[in-house]
Every structure is written in C-alpha cells, then in structure tokens.
Write a sequence for this structure.
C-alpha cells in the first residue's frame, strides 16, 4: 500500500519535471517547478528526513519559487522573448539519458552501506541533523552562511550606479483592502511565531536556523510586498549588522574555542548545547535578512521617495 | 596551527567588517585583513617547511565524522602565491576602485568579493574533505562572478551569465561524484578514500567530478566562458580571475587523481585528459593570435596555459606513478601553476595600466606606450618571458621539468606540445610587445603613478625569481606530496 | 523494486531531465529552473542512498540542506544577472543564441 503511494509520488514528480522542462511558457514552467518542489518535500518525509522536507518546502519550493516569479515579473516588463522551450536537441537528450542511466547503474552497483547503527557522539543537541550541521561539520555551515552573503553582494553589484542610494527592490503598489493587504495583516504574526518556534525547537526536533530563518524571511517578504514596510537602503547601518550577525557569532564561537585551547570550532560538551543555540539564533537572524534582501533584489527604481 | 586558522578566518572577518562598517572604517578593516592574511601565509609556509604537514581536525572531530584540514607543500606554495597576487592586486585596486573614480557601488563591492575569493581559495588549498571542497568552490565561483559583473556593461553581464551556467553545471557534476563516493564508502575525507575498498561506481564518480572540475578550470572544450569573462572584468579583477581561480579546481583535480583515487587512473583516461590539454594549448594560442584587443589576447593565453597544466596527468599518474620521472612532472606542473599565477596577474595589471593611460585596449591604441610607461611595458615583457617559458623564469623551470619527464618516460608527444606551445606563445605575445615598444604614441596618454606601475613589475619579477630561486619552492613541494610522485629524477 | 530504488531512479531521471533543460532551453530563466531541477534530483538520489540500512543517516541530510541553501544563493545571483542583462541588452537569451531556432 505504501509502495503504491511511493510509486504514484515518483510518477508525479517525474511528470511535473518533464512539464517544467518541456512545457510551453516560462510562467507555466515556474509554476510546475513550485509544484515539483512541494512534491519533493513529501518525498523527503517518506524518506524519513523531516528537516530536509522543511528546508525543501521553505527554500527549494517556496523561496526559490518566489524568486522566479518576481524575476519573471521584472522580465515581462522589459522584454517579450520566446516562450517556447526551443527545438528538440537530440545530442543533449542522448547525453542526458546516458547520465541518468549511469546514475541508475551506480545505484545498483553500489556496495551495501558500511554502517547500520548511527552512534553519534554526544553533541549537545538531540536532533542528529542539527548535530552534524552545527557541531561535527560546523565549518561547512559557517561557509554556507558566507555563501549566502557572497551571493547578496554579487547581486548588489547589479544595481546601476545611479540607483545605489535607493531602497532595495522595486517600489510596491498595493491596493488597499485587497488580498495582498489582507495577507499582510494576517500572515506576519502567524509566520513569525512559526519561524521562531522552528528555530527554537531545531535543537532536539526537526527544524533549525535555516528552516526557521526562511519562514521569518517569508514574513518579511509578505510585509514588504503588502506595503507594510519599506525596504531599507543599502547604507542603512543596522540592517548591515543584521546581515553579518550570524557568521560573526559563528566565527567568534569558533575562535573562542581556539583561544581557550580547545581548538577551532570545538564546542566542549558542557557548553555545546548553549553555544549551538546562540549560533542558531544568530544564523536565523542573518539568514532571514539575507534571504529577504536576495529576493527583493538590488536597489533600483524611480528616485522619488 | 593558528596560522592555518588565521588564513581561513581573517579574510572572512575582513569581508564581514566591510559589510558591517560604513565607508572608511570598513576599508581600513579590509586592508588590515589583507595585510594580516598575507603575513599568516608566509608564517604558515615557514611552519610547514620546518615541521612538515600540519593537520587540523575542525571541532576536534576526526574524519569520517568531522572535517580535516591539512597544509602540505602543494597547498602552502599556492597559498603564498595567492597572497602575493592578492597583495599586489589590492595595491592597484586602491586606485582603480577609489570611490570618486569607480563610484560608491563598485568601491564598496570589490573588497568583500575579493576577500571572499581569497578565503575560498584558502579553503580549497587546505581542505581534505570532498564536500567542504564543494562549498569552497561554490563560494569561489559566486565571488568570481560578482567580480566579472562588477562593471555592469552588457558584455560583462553576458559573460557573467555564461560563466554562471558553466560554473553551476560543473559544481553539480562534481557534487554528483561526491554523492557516489559517500554512498559507496561512507566517508568524504580524501585520505580515507585513498584507503577504501574499491567499488564499481568509483570510476563513474571520478569521471563526473573530473568533468565538473574541467568545466570550472575552463579546459577545452569547456573553455568558451573564460575569455569574455576575463576580458570583460576590470583589470584587477581579471588578474585574480585568470591568475588564481582556475588553480583551485586544478588543485582539486590533482588531489583526486593522485591522492584520493590513484588506483582508478587508467592510462586511457590520463591520455585523454592530456589530449584535451593539448587542444587547449593549440586552440587558445591560435585564438590569441587572432585577437585585436589586449585583454582578449591575455585571456586566451590563460586558456592555453591551463592546457599545459593538464599534461602532467599521464606523466605522474597511472603506470607512471612512482617511476623516476613522476616527481619531476608533478613538481613541474606545480611550478607552471605558480609562475602562471604570478605572471598572468602581473600581465593583467600591466594591461590595466595601459588601458587607463590609452583609454582602451585595442592594440592600435597602445602603440608606443613604452616610452611613457616604461615600467609597465617592462612588466608586460617579463610576464611574457615566463609565459613563453624562457630561462631563467619559473615558467622555464616548470616546462623543463615536465619536458624532461616526458622524454624520460617515452611520452615525447607532451614535450612536443610544450615546445609548440612556447613558440605559439611567443607569436601571440610578440604583437602586443611590438606595439608597446613601437614608435609613435597616439593621443598623449596619462601614465599612472610609478608606485602603481611597480606592482605588475614586482609580480612579473616574482614569476621570474621563482625560477632563479627554485630550490626553496622545490623543497617545500616535497612535503606531503602524493606517493605517486615520490621518487626523484 | 523497493521504495528506495524508486526514489533513487526518480532522482536520476530528474537529473537527466534537468541537464537536458539546462542545455536545450534558450530562455535563461528556464535554464536556471532546470539547474534547480538537477540539484533537487541529485539530493533525492543522495537521500535515497542515505536511507538504506535501517535508520536514516544524518550526514547526507545535513549536506543536502547545505546544498539547498547553496543552490538558492546561486539561483538568486543568476536571476539578478538575468534581470540586469535584460535591462541593458533587452534580451533574455545569450547573445550567441539570439537568432535562429
């Protein structure tokens, strides 16, 4: 019975993937992509990876989908390029079929997994994924938060020189009393609670800084799109501090370990849980702010403010 | 140990400081970070040459659970070369990206992108964990793309888009290989992978990772993105992009083929890689001959010089591993990488000065500039010496080592390729040199200050000095070299 | 065919479909969508390998979360480049692919 569910889910996923790539129209492609992301999130739950499911739903389908839709909106005002996917490319199709076949072969040719029991050393948190992310492989996570910042700075370089002092993103025009304005009143408080909860509970149960931070970013985006808040300018000091808060806290924690003799990014057992929590809070703030700025885009638009 | 951590942390801290602090304070923090990181690089090199390989298990967790970092000869020499180039580029960029000259936007954005690029390079040169290397090259690519697009011109933006398509495809292919390795062996650590029980998907994993890294190193036929991207970026950025960025993916390839999975290095695959390198040398040189713009000539030169690096694979791997000439070939390739980094950075900075003085980089515009800017023209000439491979430069030392290995092993084809490559390099570098040292300047050009002109000269001089004082580098490179390259000629 | 095999094969297929989209699409936004398809297909494949052997392995899950965030960062930069390029050049395809089909 569950196998049937898995089979149906996989078939749907593949169908939607085909539709995304082969369908007509960029907008349709984006919508199918969002559906694909949500189906993936369900697949992750089936694979017993709830943290990943949360991340895929929030970041992979949700935030990426919003990013694409706003980009599509910006492009539609500029150009009227082709919507057709283009002529069928036989060599590429053969090569990609070969790649799929090779990976499928690899799946069957792989040796059986080496370990059966997941005996992780005590890490200060109960959620094993959080333990890996923020203790055993913390260096990767620190670099990952920096990758977000690097993308944002690169994105800011897309602004025109004359627009550099403006507020981020395009000015939003919202009809008072409309759906967006209604969402703007309802969603932020609920979203804020969900986001904070996800960050708080991530130590011991599925959740964490990335998932919670993304929900908080969504709150910020809804508020901005509903016209409740105006995006800041790049020069606004406290937002830039918020951007670097997460990686900075992470670095300080890592260096504290080095200075106190334990080693770089070493979290001694008694303080590991607290340290991880503090780092997660910092990361959540930075992730939320960075994601909002990434979706809003570089400063642009008319200069009347 | 602390120098290792400093090299990773200081550039990150500098980048964070610029974002958080406004204006002058941020730039001051950036320059302190640059100086401190350069000092740490030298200190680390000194430590490694006296103490051997330095290992650090981040967080105190040993692989396969945690991430291991190691500073060996290869990593440390590249780190020192990177620090040298970064120091030079930042000195020049202080002028090029001054707020009144380049605008607030570019003046703000160059420094964090540069520091993040540096940090990513250090991560790649020091890491022994395959997924950590993935995150490192992603950071590297994103920072590099930001630098390509920093001017905002249409050509630069199109080049950046082409770059990002190749870079992201390459990263995903690499990641696919990493996934297969972890699924088969349960570890991501290079040294643990080296002692694994071989399994069937290993070959596929290595092929995927190699394909992805070749795309990122712009090896033929994945090179199409490089010339417009490096030509479209401002000169200090091009110096970083050409001199440093391709070395990172190349180092990962070296570690994969010689440290992690040497048993998977079949002769056929190694020869194929070297043939692609050959194609890169020929194609890049011929394309450079046909260009009319200085920056495009130098960018195509990078495509060609990268091809040289890939000739090392059949000479130091597979059936050549452990044989007397393997060490020479391996060392030669590293010398080529080091000297190319220094020389190409110096050349791009010199071209930048010429463009600033002449108002463009068409060959006809730089005619006769040597009279007005002798230091810059001489810097270009010195860099050319290294790229062509004339003694006593570092380029010559590298070529000599690789060619000797090629003859000793009977694979004389690669020696022929290097010789032909040198001739072609002389050909395509002759035209700019003839223009520079020719007679009759155009409109009266305004030369940059002598201090700024000194930087490319010093970098080019360093690439030559590398050949003269090669014994020091040779010694450090022996530390921690893979078993395949252990015997000496 | 076990459920895990289903997911692994679905992931492999998604990777293939995504690469085809990356190569064959002309509109740049479709290429970026395709790149995300490849990424999530690869993560699904990885997750399936991690779910073998009883309890789920947390290391692949952590790496996948990292990968999802990195993919988003890259997508955001890529679409920013698209928009800036379209603004300056007026087209959403790369210059060499502009005319013809």
């Amino acid at each position: 019975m569950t196998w049937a569910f898995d089979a149906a889910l996989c078939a749907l996923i593949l169908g939607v993937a085909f539709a995304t790539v082969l369908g007509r129209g960029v907008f349709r492609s984006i919508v199918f992509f969002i559906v694909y992301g949500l189906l993936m999130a369900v697949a992750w739950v089936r694979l017993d990876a709830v943290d990943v499911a949360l991340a895929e739903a929030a970041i992979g389908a949700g935030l990426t989908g919003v990013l694409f839709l706003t980009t599509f909106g910006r492009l539609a005002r500029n150009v009227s390029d082709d919507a057709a996917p283009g002529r069928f490319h036989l060599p590429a199709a053969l090569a990609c079929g070969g790649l799929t076949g090779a990976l499928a072969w690899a799946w069957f040719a792989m040796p059986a997994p080496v370990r059966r029991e997941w005996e992780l050393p005590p890490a200060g948190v109960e959620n094993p994924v959080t333990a890996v992310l923020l203790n055993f492989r913390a260096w990767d996570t620190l670099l990952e938060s920096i990758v977000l910042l690097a993308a944002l700075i690169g994105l800011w370089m897309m602004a025109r020189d004359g627009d550099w002092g403006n507020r981020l993103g395009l000015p939003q025009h919202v009809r008072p009393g409309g759906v967006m304005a209604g969402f703007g009143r309802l969603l932020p408080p609920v979203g804020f609670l969900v986001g904070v909860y996800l960050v708080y509970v991530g130590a011991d149960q599925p959740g964490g800084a990335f998932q919670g931070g993304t929900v908080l970013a969504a709150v910020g985006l809804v508020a901005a799109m509903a016209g409740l808040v105006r995006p800041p300018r790049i020069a606004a000091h406290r937002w830039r501090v918020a951007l670097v808060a997460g990686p900075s806290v992470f670095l300080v924690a890592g260096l504290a370990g080095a200075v106190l003799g334990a080693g770089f990014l070493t979290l001694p057992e008694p303080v590991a849980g607290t340290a991880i929590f503090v780092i997660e809070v910092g990361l959540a703030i930075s992730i939320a702010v960075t994601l909002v700025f990434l979706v809003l885009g570089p400063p642009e638009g008319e200069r009347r403010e | 140990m602390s120098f290792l951590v400093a090299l990773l942390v200081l550039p990150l801290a500098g980048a964070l400081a610029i974002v958080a602090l406004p204006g002058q304070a941020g730039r001051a923090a950036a320059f302190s970070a640059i100086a401190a990181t350069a000092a740490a690089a030298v200190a680390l090199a000194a430590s490694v040459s006296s103490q051997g390989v330095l290992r650090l298990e981040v967080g105190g967790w040993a692989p396969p659970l945690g991430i291991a970092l190691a500073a060996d000869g290869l990593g440390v020499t590249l780190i020192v070369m990177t620090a040298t180039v970064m120091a030079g580029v930042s000195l020049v960029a202080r002028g090029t990206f001054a707020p009144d000259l380049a605008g607030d936007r570019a003046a703000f954005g160059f420094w964090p992108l540069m520091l993040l690029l540096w940090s990513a390079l250090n991560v790649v040169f020091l890491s022994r964990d395959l997924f950590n290397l993935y995150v490192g090259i992603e950071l590297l690519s994103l920072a590099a793309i930001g630098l390509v697009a920093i001017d905002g011109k249409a050509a630069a933006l199109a080049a950046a888009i082409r770059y990002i398509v190749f870079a992201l495809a390459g990263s995903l292919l690499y990641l696919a290989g990493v996934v297969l390795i972890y699924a088969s062996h349960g570890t991501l650590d290079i040294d643990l992978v080296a002692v694994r029980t071989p399994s069937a998907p290993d070959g596929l994993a290595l092929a995927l990772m190699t394909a992805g890294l070749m795309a990122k190193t712009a090896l033929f036929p994945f090179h199409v993105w490089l010339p417009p991207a490096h030509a479209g970026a401002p000169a200090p950025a091009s110096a970083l992009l050409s001199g440093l960025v391709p070395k990172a993916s190349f180092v990962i390839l070296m570690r994969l083929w010689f440290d992690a999975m040497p048993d998977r290095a079949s002769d056929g695959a190694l020869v194929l890689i070297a043939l692609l390198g050959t194609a890169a040398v020929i194609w890049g040189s011929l394309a450079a001959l046909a260009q009319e713009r200085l920056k495009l000539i130098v960018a195509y030169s990078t495509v060609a010089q990268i091809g040289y690096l890939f000739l090392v694979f059949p000479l130091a791997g597979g059936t050549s591993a452990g044989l007397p000439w393997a060490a020479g070939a391996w060392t030669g390739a590293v010398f080529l990488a080091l000297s190319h980094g220094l020389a190409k950075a110096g050349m791009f900075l010199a071209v930048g000065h010429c463009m600033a003085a002449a108002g463009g980089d068409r060959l006809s515009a730089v005619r006769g500039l040597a009279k007005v800017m002798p230091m810059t023209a001489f810097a270009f000439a010195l860099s050319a010496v290294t790229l062509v491979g004339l003694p006593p430069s570092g380029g010559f030392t590298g070529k000599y080592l690789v060619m000797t290995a090629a003859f000793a092993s009977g694979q004389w084809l690669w020696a022929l390729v290097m010789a032909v490559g040198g001739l072609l390099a002389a050909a395509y570098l002759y035209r700019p040199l003839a223009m520079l040292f020719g007679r009759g300047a155009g409109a009266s050009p305004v030369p940059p200050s002598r201090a700024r002109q000194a930087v490319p000269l010093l970098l080019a001089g360093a690439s030559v000095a590398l050949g003269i004082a090669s014994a020091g580098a040779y010694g450090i490179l022996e530390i921690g070299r893979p078993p395949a390259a252990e015997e000496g000629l | 065919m076990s459920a895990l095999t289903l997911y692994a094969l679905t992931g492999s297929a998604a990777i293939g479909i995504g690469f085809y989209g990356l190569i064959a699409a002309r509109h740049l936004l479709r290429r970026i969508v395709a790149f995300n398809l490849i990424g999530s297909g690869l993560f699904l494949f990885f997750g399936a390998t991690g779910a073998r052997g009883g309890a789920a392995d947390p290391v692949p899950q952590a790496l996948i979360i990292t990968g999802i965030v990195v993919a988003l960062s890259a997508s955001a930069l890529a679409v920013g480049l698209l928009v800036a390029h379209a603004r300056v050049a007026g087209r959403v395809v790369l210059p060499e692919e502009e005319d013809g089909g």
